[in-house]
From TrEMBL:
Subcellular location: Cell membrane
Signal peptide (from-to): none
Protein name: HAMP domain-containing protein
GO cellular component, one term: plasma membrane
Pfam family, any one: His_kinase
Topology in the lipid bilayer: Multi-pass membrane protein
Stored InterPro entries: Bact_2-comp_sensor_kinase, HAMP_dom, HATPase_C_sf, HATPase_dom, Sig_transdc_His_kin_internal
Gene3D superfamilies (alphabetical): 6.10.340.10, Histidine kinase-like ATPase, C-terminal domain, PAS domain
């Protein structure tokens, strides 16, 4: 605990706390902002990939859809299909029609490498036209469903998409597969005669699921995104990972809007789910990305940030400590010097020249003060002043080093805070006070000089108390040129601070009002401090009137005694106080002018 009494230790500790807390706050805020930014960037990236993937799928399916539309409006095809279902068509003519339709299908679809199979069939007449000699199983439940879907369509160019299924309707082993296909079907009707409702056939186009696998596997490899395709019947068409699934609540969210995203816990970890709806098929492309990789990256960033903050804090504290010790060195020299002076070593002197001009001025002022103090002591011994004057000198010699010590401590604090303007203000105020206190012969000065000394004293104290003191002053015309004992007002102002306003919250108001009344000068000093109890006020008035009852308040009694010694019984000191409201002290002295020969450059009288 003893080390904490050191100003260096306290400054270093305070700086360490401020710097540490500032850096920690900065690190936490930066990490939060970066985390939010990274998560938003991840969401933006996944939604963009989902939309792009959906567009790629739409582009591929649109090409097939356009091909089917082109096929459906082919006049030759419609004419051949009309002939194929004619009851008068002979077998040889039917074979010729089959060849023409097969060639037409080949010319349109032969270049598409992902086709599993394509054909046109009429389930009612059990007629099919396929790209090879394979046969179609007309009893296939899937084909029966497709035919039923298109049986009653009113217009031509109607297209339907069917999700993943096994193409079990191919009777040729060449076309059979263990894998699933996705089917696009279109009705073939006479688009040029809307009144003709005959359905001549349904064009079937089967393409491999492997096409989707290439698209989505590339995305998964590049970004780590898993994908699912869900049709409008909420059935899974394709999954990059067969184990992927969606809960019933997630499935409901998919169909609330055409696109969007949300986060939920999947497999014990937080994941981002983004989806987009195909304009061509109405299917949902769903992308899923785990936050595990993001969390790992953020953990690395957090650890790196903490390490850098620790290094920065250590270096900053070391630098601040070095600067504090270096800056406080002259202050500590002054403090040590004042302590030695306070012990009675008045023959000690400070170096007059230092690195800092302010301390040079202060050192010279202190040395001059000590020289004058020695002179005053010698003069006091030679002249054998009155006992009351000796008590006053003793009081002054005890108070000046204590006040000076507090002032130097304030200057030290200001230097740490870098408040150079306030240091200059305090230094010059202290210099004026020292100058004012050094020159004394008959101890009488104009009231304006005493008021100026009080203002310097309050300026210094206001720095110490962070500007809480508010000083109000008023004087009648010409009253400031009358004489008063030197250091009459300052002890009263000091009492008002330490025993009055220092114990209240808010602004501290100290007021001095000097008025001229007949042949007297009336000085009223008031404050808004804690005041006194009626018992304490009565006791203090008794001690003022009867010196034998005095037990303390040397400053207040000394002022009253010195006024009486100088002006006689016509000089009075009266006190009034109300608890929790403040105290008023009224000095009454005769009007007396200082002799001209006692005036000095600073306006003081000696």
């Amino acid at each position: 605990m003893k080390i904490m009494k050191s100003i260096n230790a306290r400054i270093i500790l305070s700086l360490s706390l401020v710097i540490g807390l500032s850096l920690i706050s900065l690190g936490v805020i930066s990490y939060q902002i970066f985390s939010r930014f990274t998560e938003n960037d991840m969401i933006k990236h996944v939604t963009s990939v989902t939309a792009q993937t959906n567009q790629s799928l739409d582009l591929y399916l649109s090409e097939i859809k356009d091909s089917l539309h082109f096929l459906s409006v082919d006049k030759d095809l419609i004419s051949n299909l009309q002939d194929s279902i004619s009851k008068n068509s002979y077998a040889i003519e039917h074979d010729q029609i089959r060849v023409r339709i097969t060639e037409l299908l080949y010319n349109i679809f032969a270049e598409k490498s992902d086709i599993r199979g394509y054909f046109i069939y009429n389930n009612d007449y059990k007629i099919s036209f396929i790209n090879n000699k394979a046969l179609i199983g007309y009893d296939s439940p899937f084909l029966n469903k497709v035919w039923a879907d298109f049986k009653n369509t009113q217009y031509a160019l109607q297209t339907r998409f069917y999700g993943s299924h096994k193409p079990d309707y191919y009777e040729s082993s060449y076309n059979k597969t263990d894998g699933n296909v996705i089917t696009i079907a279109a009705n073939i009707k006479d688009a040029y005669d809307p009144s003709n409702s005959t359905l001549y056939g349904v064009a079937i186009f089967d393409y491999n699921i492997s096409k989707l696998k290439r698209i989505y596997d590339q995305i998964q490899t590049q970004t780590g995104i898993e994908s699912i395709i869900v049709d409008d019947q909420q059935q899974f068409i394709y999954q990059t990972d067969p184990s992927l699934t969606l809960s019933s609540s997630s499935m409901e969210k998919l169909f609330e809007h055409s696109s969007g995203y949300w986060t939920e816990n999947i497999g014990g970890g937080k994941s981002l789910i983004s989806y987009s709806t195909s304009d061509v098929t109405g299917w949902k492309t769903v992308s899923m990305l785990s936050f595990a990789q993001l969390d790992q990256n953020l953990k690395l960033i957090r650890n790196t940030t903490l390490t850098l903050l620790a290094i920065m804090a250590t270096l900053t504290i070391l630098f601040a400590s070095a600067m504090t010790i270096r800056t406080n060195k002259p202050i500590l020299v002054l403090v040590k010097f004042i302590k030695n002076v306070g012990k009675g070593n008045l023959n000690l002197r400070l170096e007059r020249k230092t690195k800092y001009e302010e301390f040079s001025v202060l050192n010279r002022g202190i040395n001059d003060m000590l020289d004058k103090i020695n002179e005053l002591i010698e003069e006091s011994v030679k002249r054998q002043l009155l006992q009351k004057e000796a008590e006053y000198d003793a009081l002054q010699s005890k108070m000046d080093p204590h006040f000076l010590y507090n002032t130097l401590q304030s200057i030290s604090s200001l230097s740490i805070l870098g408040r150079n303007a306030d240091i200059e203000k305090v230094t010059y105020a202290l210099r004026d006070m020292l100058h004012y206190s050094l020159y004394r012969q008959n101890d009488m000065v104009p009231i304006q000089s005493e008021v100026r000394s009080v203002e310097n004293y309050l300026n210094i104290q206001n720095i110490r108390y962070d500007g809480k003191i508010r000083f109000e002053f008023h004087a009648d015309d010409d009253v400031l040129y009358y004489s008063i004992n030197k250091f009459t007002l300052q002890p009263l102002i000091e009492n008002a601070i330490y025993h009055g306003v220092e114990g209240i919250d808010g602004d501290w108001l100290i007021s001095i009002r000097i008025t001229k009344q007949s042949e007297e000068v009336r000085i009223k000093i008031s404050d808004n401090g804690i005041g006194m109890t009626p018992e304490r006020l009565l006791d203090l008035r008794s001690q003022l009137s009867n010196k034998n009852l005095r037990t303390g308040r040397i400053g207040l009694f000394s002022v009253a005694d010195r006024l009486e010694l100088k002006f006689g019984p016509s000089a009075t000191l009266e006190i009034d106080s109300i608890q929790h409201e403040g105290t008023i002290i009224v000095l009454t002295i005769p009007q007396h002018y200082t002799e001209r020969g006692d005036q000095h450059d600073d306006g003081t009288t000696n």
